[in-house]
Structures are given as structure tokens and as C-alpha cells.
Amino acid sequence: MPRSMRVTGSGNSTGKRNENRATRREALATVRTIRAVVPLLAIVSVAAALILRLAIFKPAQAALYPVDGRRDLNGADIARYKGAGILYCRRPDGVPQKAAAAWLIGDPRLVVLNAHNFRSRKMEATRNVADCFFQIGGRNFTFEPESLRLGTPPNAAALHITDDWALLRLSGPADGVPLQSVPDASDLPTGTDSRSIVMVSPAGHGNYRGQSSLESCTIRQIDPPSEDGIRRVRHDCNNGYGGSGSGLFDGSDRLIAMQSASLSMNSRRPFDIEFHYGSAMLLEGELVRAIQEEVRAIEQVTRQIR
User: Fold this and answer.
1) What is the C-alpha separation between 19 and 272, in angstroms, rounded?
2) 3-state DSSP call for residue 217?
3) Which of 74, 112, 138, 185 shows the smallest number of beta carbons within 10 Å?
4) Closest Cα to residue 168, out of 126, 195, 129?
5) Domain spanning 195-287 has what CATH number?
6) What residues pair up with 102 in beta bridges, in sequence order?
7) What b-and-e string marks burial along 40-73, b requiring 16 or more CB atoms within 10 Å of the CB?
8) What share of the chain is helix, strand, coil (3-state, %, to 5)?
9) d(CA 296, CA 284)
10) Is residue 218 a contact partner of residue 234, using CB atoms and an 8 Å limit?
11) Which residue ranges does the chain devote to CATH 2.40.10.10?
12) Is the Cβ–Cβ distance between 90 and 96 less than 8 Å?
């Protein structure tokens, strides 16, 4: 074979090797780039997933109104606002969790709380009393499951703000714990006169950082009587999930109302008397009569036992 052909052949082979080396260098550079980028992509993906998860599953931490004056309850508050306790109920897996505020009123064995802890708005049973207990003064007390007394009539098809109350007896007395005397707020006038109050929430709120809270706020209106001769009050106290049963106290530390529900939960905007307010029921009418009857019945049973 002529020399010129051999030289030419040698040149082509060298060129190909050079091309292969360049290709390998480019491939290695690409691999290094990918190795550098992949961890960053992984971090970004994880961060995005966490943000999405928080957005979907974490309750909004927001007050109902532009001003949030809530603070944690302290020891002096507990001594001042007597009878403040917490309803705990067990989840399907058996783990207890806070459900709502509840109050020891009139007798060491009588607890007052919201009916919606056990019934839906259509009066469907949502919890068994046996799955719940009452905590007060750092101690837990079980209920008498058959003692549940609801504010609604036996044939009721719906639950309203003003019959959203229930009474339960404890299996044993909460001795040594200060309790609320039997309340009566029937002296408060119906109408739109503002009244300064304090909302006491021993079970706290889902949109508040602390385990319990207290806030100075205002009753803006007391509606005419409805179910059981009880009136609804419209107030501007911040509220969140878990705040049901919170107590509304007047300037003389008298328990006058119990929180039921708030419109537009976790929607932070100014108070509106028609569309954005909290609803509580005054402690009066059939609720007070029921408390008095239960206190007498418990006292009678206690005397018979003695």
C-alpha cells in the first residue's frame, strides 16, 4: 500500500481518537453537572413537598379579627375564673385529645358544656360519652355515660346556638376544686348596647399558639329569646377550633354566657354584626333550670348514700 495512503489512514484514526476523547470529556462534564444539580433538585423537591403538605394539612394560624388580644391563662386566672375545665375525648386509635372547654358548675359532680361535642347539627351522634373524660385542677374524671342531658327536645331534627348545651355527671366528685355557682344572666337587656367581657378558653384554640387563652373583648348585641327562652349574644372575641364552650365573663367575674360557634372560622377580617361574629348562649332560661334540677338531684342521691 502506498505510503501516502498509510499516512492518511493514520491521520483519520488519530482524529477519531481525539473526537472520542472530546466526547468522553463532554460526557464526564455532563455527569459532573448532573451530580451537582441533582442534590439541589432533591432539596427543592423536598421543600416544595413540605410547603404543599403544610398548606394542605396545617390549620391556618389566624385570628378572626385584625386585632388579636389573646394571651395565655395563668394561675391567677384559673383561681379567678372558677370551674374552668377541659373535655378530652379519645380518637379511634385510643389516643385522648382536647375537644372543648367545659365547666364545673353548681356541684362538684356537674359539668356544663356544648351539646355539639356529642351531636351533629342534624342531631346525629358523633361521640360516645364513655370515650371522653373531664380534666380540671390537673386531675382526670370520668363521666356517668347515661347521665347526658341535652338542651334539645327528644324529637329535635337540628341543633341551634341557643339549645347547644349539655349536662353531664362525673362518676365521682371533683373535691377540692373551686367551682362556679349556678349562673343566671336573665337580667341582661336585649339589644345592641356594647358590654365589655372576658372570654376564658381553658382548652385554647386551634389558631392560637398557647394551650389555653384569655381575651378582653365585647358583646355587641343580645338577640331576642329563641329555643328554651335562651338568647344568643354576638361578640367580637377571637375564636378557633377547640374554643367551643369557652366562658364569657362580665366585669364582676360572673359567668354569663358559653361560646357555641363563630362564622367564617379563620377568616381574618373586621367584625360584622351580620356576617362575621361569634355566637354564644346566655346562661338563662331552660339551661339554668336544668342546672338547678341536676344540682338538687345530685344532692338527693348524695344524702341517700350517706
Assistant:
1) 77
2) strand
3) 138
4) 129
5) 2.40.10.10
6) 85
7) eeeeeeeeeeeeeeeeeeeeeeebbbeeeebeeb
8) 30, 30, 40
9) 17
10) no
11) 82-181+293-305, 195-287
12) yes
Write the pLDDT tens digit of every residue in 188-198: 999 998 999 99
Residue 265 grid coordinates: 372560622
Ordered alpha helix ranges (H), the chain: 3-57, 75-80, 285-305
Residues 6+ apart with CB under 8 A from 210: 70, 71, 72, 73, 204
Cα–Cα distance for residue pair 138/262, rounded to 1 Å = 29
Note the pLDDT tens digit of each residue in 226-284. Answer: 988 999 999 999 998 889 999 999 999 999 999 998 766 567 778 888 888 999 999 99
Q: How far is CA 151 from the centre of its chain?
A: 22
Q: Does domain 82-181+293-305 have CATH number 1.10.1740.10?
A: no
Main-chain dihedrals φ then ψ at residue 285, nearest 5 degrees: 60, -140
Q: What is the mean pLDDT of residues 24-32?
A: 60
Q: How many CA atoms lie within 13 A of 245 on its CB side?
A: 30
Triad 296, 297, 299: Cα angle to 5°:
65
Alpha-carbon separation of residue 3 from 13, 16, 67 (angstroms): 15, 20, 95
Q: How does the average pLDDT of the chain come out, rounded?
A: 85
Q: How far apart are CA 160 and CA 282, in angstroms?
A: 13
